[in-house]
Write a structure and sequence with these properties.
Elements: H1 4-10, E1 14-15, H2 25-29, E2 35-36, E3 58-59, E4 68-70, E5 73-88, E6 91-98, E7 107-110, E8 114-121, E9 130-132, E10 156-162, E11 167-172, H3 177-182, E12 187-192, E13 205-214, E14 233-236, E15 247-250, E16 254-261, E17 267-271, E18 277-281, E19 284-285, E20 296-299, E21 304-310, E22 315-321, H4 344-353, H5 367-370, E23 384-387, E24 390-394, E25 398-404
Parallel strand pairs: 3-13, 5-8, 7-12, 13-16, 15-25
Antiparallel strand pairs: 1-2, 4-5, 5-6, 8-10, 9-11, 11-12, 13-14, 16-21, 17-20, 17-22, 18-19, 18-21, 22-25, 23-24
The structure holds copper (II) ion (CU).
Copper (II) ion (CU) binds next to loops.
């Protein structure tokens, strides 16, 4: 068990010293210690030393907020503030978040806990927090103007309620929401069951993360906050591949992954090599007779899903959003299709005029995965990430489930790449090939093929605007 102080030290968290730039230290003295995180690493599970015990979650590239127990109430302190988040090595974004990071820390409590959350506003504008999915008194629901006054800059408000329902929740502002969510203000919340629950499994590994999206122009640092649909960075907990940590588990582990969607579009989340069931939503655990096997779960805007599976196949298994432009970073947008177009002649002429003009995509876009092209500062390559056999050609919402025989229980360290046993990997065939079978009745009986040369019609692609996702 990790003590609170050891946990802070190990995780590089700072406590106390941050006290009060805009809030007086006298006022702060009565509040729980300020805890802030400056690293985007996945923190090990936080085992509490006070309160009822539970099996903690692991927040992907994130951490759990410690609390203090005061007269039987769990007290947390969230600081809404500007933060710098590393989206992936080579790119930092200027976001808004909580306690040093975006997303904010995960809050973990136990069913029946009385919870008090102090929210200090260090943003330049007012804010609130809405506790998505919770049963609570109406005045604690956090819709600015409807349930409470907005929290002005420099002020601290307290929210207090009993965590009545066990399950998977999230929190986010309900004040200037489009701006504040586009800037990264959100966090995860897990309420663990107080005793064995008929619909909530005990699992060996319990991961959680939020789907989020940003629109950050290549070469810049701050998201555009008025973007409605055309985001260019698709992230999990404000990280893009190859900056997203892998899910490291032991062969035979029961695994739960909790996912919430705070982007403005749906994400079909796809796991390779295993089948899962949806064991819960933000509305609670699903009845057993409603669970069927899936390998892809679509998560709509504002929804949360818990997926559960037995990790019984060793290997490195991709886990990603199945919208292919969501596994791609900013540079991949607005590039015309050039497959089959030999534009080297044209390129040569253009290069005479524009020396760093680049030919893209005439053999497909895979070249982009290997290419070391000059990028603007603070910009991720479109698709990247080195695997054991070359570039993975992915970006954005992509990670890897690493299932290993010799991963120790409770060990979340990255075991490195999987080495496939001999004879179990796709290989180059150099023997004779049978003639390929082809479907020969093109045109059917009524319209037999005429044997005339094929005329290809070429349509000119006019530059247009690209919007819907
Ligand atoms: Cu997606």
């Amino acid at each position: 068990m990790t003590s609170r102080r050891d946990f802070f030290r190990k995780m590089g968290m700072t406590g106390g010293a941050l006290a009060a730039t805009s809030v007086s230290s006298v006022a702060m003295a009565a509040l729980p210690e300020l805890v802030s995180m400056d690293k985007p690493d996945t923190a090990p599970p936080f085992t509490p030393s006070t309160g009822r015990s539970y099996n903690p979650v692991v927040t992907l590239n994130g951490w759990t907020l410690p609390w203090r127990m005061r007269n039987g109430v769990k007290e947390f302190h969230l600081i809404a503030e500007p933060v710098v988040r590393e989206i992936a090595p080579g790119m930092r974004a200027h976001l808004w978040g909580y306690n040093g990071q975006s997303p904010g820390p995960t809050i973990e409590v136990v069913e029946g806990d009385r919870v008090r959350i102090f929210v200090t506003n260090r943003l330049p504008e007012h804010t609130t927090i809405h506790w998505h999915g919770q049963r609570l008194p109406n005045g604690m629901d956090g819709v600015g103007g409807l349930n409470q006054k907005q929290i002005p800059p420099g002020k601290t408000y307290a929210y207090e309620f009993v965590a009545r329902r066990p399950g998977t929740f999230m929190y986010h502002p309900h004040a200037d929401e489009m701006t504040q969510m586009a800037m990264g203000m959100m966090g995860f919340w897990v309420t663990h069951p107080k005793s064995k629950h008929p619909l909530i499994e005990e699992v060996d590994r319990d991961f959680c993360f939020l789907l989020n999206a940003y629109d950050i122009d290549p070469g810049s640092y701050t998201p555009k906050v008025n973007t409605m649909l055309d985001f260019n960075l698709w992230t999990w907990n404000s990280r893009a591949f190859p900056g997203i940590d892998s899910f490291n588990v032991r062969l035979g582990d029961k695994v739960r992954i909790r996912i919430g969607n705070l982007t403005m579009t749906n994400h079909p989340m796809h796991l390779h090599g295993h089948e899962f069931v949806i064991s819960g939503t933000d509305g609670g655990p699903t009845p057993r007779n409603s669970r069927w096997p899936e390998v892809t779960a679509d998560i709509a805007v504002g929804q949360m899903r818990q997926i559960e599976f037995l990790a019984d196949e060793e290997g490195d298994w991709a886990f990603h959003c199945h919208k292919s432009h969501h596994t791609m970073n900013a540079m991949g947008h607005d590039v015309p299709t050039m497959i089959g177009v030999d534009h080297r002649g044209a390129a040569k002429k253009i290069i005479d005029l524009i020396p760093d003009y680049m030919v893209m995509g005439e053999r497909g876009m895979a070249d982009m995965g290997e290419m070391e092209m000059p990028l603007p500062d603070n910009t991720l390559p479109m698709m990247t990430g080195q695997g054991p056999y070359g570039a993975v050609e992915m970006g954005g919402m992509f990670s890897v489930l690493k299932v290993r025989r010799n991963q120790k229980p409770g060990d979340y360290k990255d075991p490195g790449w999987y080495m496939q046993p001999p004879g179990t990997q796709a290989f180059e065939w150099d023997g004779p090939l049978a003639a390929p079978s082809r479907f020969r009745s093109e045109g059917g009986q009524a319209n037999p093929a005429l044997g005339k040369p094929v005329v290809t019609e070429v349509k000119v692609r006019k530059p247009g605007t690209h919007s819907k996702h």
